[in-house]
Amino acid sequence: MKLLRTPAELIKWSENIHRKGLTIGLVPTMGYLHEGHLSLMKRAKAENDKVLLTVFVNPSQFAPGEDYRSYPRNLKRDKRLAGQGGADAIYAPKARTVYPLPYRTYINVEELSGVMCGVRRESHFKGVTTIVGKLFNLSSADRAYFGRKDFQQSVIIGQMIRDLDFKVKLRVLPIVRARGGLAESSRNKYLTGRQRKQAISIYQSLREARKVILGGERRADRVRDQITRRLKKAGLSVDYVTVGEAKSLDSVKVIGKNTYIAIAAFCGKTRLIDNMLIKTTRHIIL
Amino acid sequence: MKLLRTPAELIKWSENIHRKGLTIGLVPTMGYLHEGHLSLMKRAKAENDKVLLTVFVNPSQFAPGEDYRSYPRNLKRDKRLAGQGGADAIYAPKARTVYPLPYRTYINVEELSGVMCGVRRESHFKGVTTIVGKLFNLSSADRAYFGRKDFQQSVIIGQMIRDLDFKVKLRVLPIVRARGGLAESSRNKYLTGRQRKQAISIYQSLREARKVILGGERRADRVRDQITRRLKKAGLSVDYVTVGEAKSLDSVKVIGKNTYIAIAAFCGKTRLIDNMLIKTTRHIIL
Predict the structure, then answer these.
(1) Global confidence as pTM
(2) What dihedral angle (degrees, nearest 10) is formed by the CA atoms of A55, A60, A66, A68?
(3) What are chain A's domains?
(4) How far is CA B244 from the centre of its chain?
(5) What ipTM does the predicted assembly reach?
(6) A283 catalytic per annotation
(7) Would the CB atoms of A109 and B105 count as touching at under 8 Å?
(8) Residues of chain B contacting A162 with CB distance shorter than 8 Å
(9) Distance to chain A for B162, nearest Cα, Å
């Protein structure tokens, strides 16, 4: 497995592959890999000739006061797991080569970036779309793989690809969950044993909400209130619970056929997110 | 010469060319071609296997109240001139295929887009960088050609290419001037015979400024005042006169080795821009 440290090395690697007529599957991550990332790499391996894993804790998507400095980093561990996942190369650049000074250009997906996680994390998605756009350009990847856990991110990146005419194909894969249903996340490392148990209530509240909806409930505020109560009872501090339409991210009052529920909650100082897409049929009587 | 009307047609055309190992030179324009555009096409032809001219009056770079609707359009004329310039294809899409609804993604080059023309035309450069980024992605052009007349634009696009890791190579070509020195511009069509004569004072004021600087003047405010007086005397309404550093666009107080002077002025209702790069030597005594 090749370790690429600079944009120039990445360009050379990807051009060499495309010159042979082979395809590249891109898996952008911030490292500290978990089972979710492994599922992305495995799918990328199945659909492309070569898999490029990127490991970069991207400063532009952290606000001052967030966990940029403390975010878990362990390239040695990531290399080992990337090998297991079937990656052919890891791109792990230094921040100063990614953002040479004076750095001034940003990609922003308006509207979608200002709701949900974008309320608390104001410039977060601007940082995400900028780094992802840069990775698309450097790698000329044929397909790019993201986890559904970051639901809002996946919708925003889909919109960016469409709007800016990137040629890459987007693949969004299901959430991988640990025992008890906690969504895999590098930030789970921050949790104590007791907090992990509390955090499981996020998934449980989603399951309970789905049950209630499939049982006929269509009032979004009722579902939201139920989840909020459940999370508070477990000792979590709720950032948001959104019941919305899956393409536009617009909140809904009445739950329709393709509704998602997204949650962000603090467990101690750790902010966790999770979501569920709930498909109802037309046949339920409102 | 091929006429391409949709993003899909453009992708097909460019992929076909790259599959053969040939190169593409991109000349993005808003049409109503003039000698400046022709010089870009000729250079593109000399440096690439194929030349792609794009003709698109881009709505996102016009503010409400600007001349989006009245901007001169004549595709038949453009086709003829494109043929003379050696273009192999013209991409002339409809606005709704370029910005399918809901359209939400913009590229913005911060700082550089907010000065000079960006003061009066607040979201202008955001529209420019967005459409140019889209054209880079659709065409996968090897080189892109812009005129130095839009000096600020060329600096902003250079920054965007560097920051977002676009692989295209930027070529910025000298201003082409009509008789008397008026910089070629599609908007010159708006001018009456009398206004054309007035407008020539823009170039004359730049020449006079250069003369004064080469004669030893280093105080930017003196140079600026001289130009402003000259333009007013000719009956123009000055939008800005900037004396600045050519890479950062920062205004300077003392004129250095690589200084540009940029002017925007209204001749009647027509807003005209022009600029000059002035290289001094170290040997002049301050």
Answers:
(1) 0.96
(2) 30
(3) 2-173 (3.40.50.620), 179-279 (3.30.1300.10)
(4) 18
(5) 0.95
(6) no
(7) yes
(8) 100
(9) 9
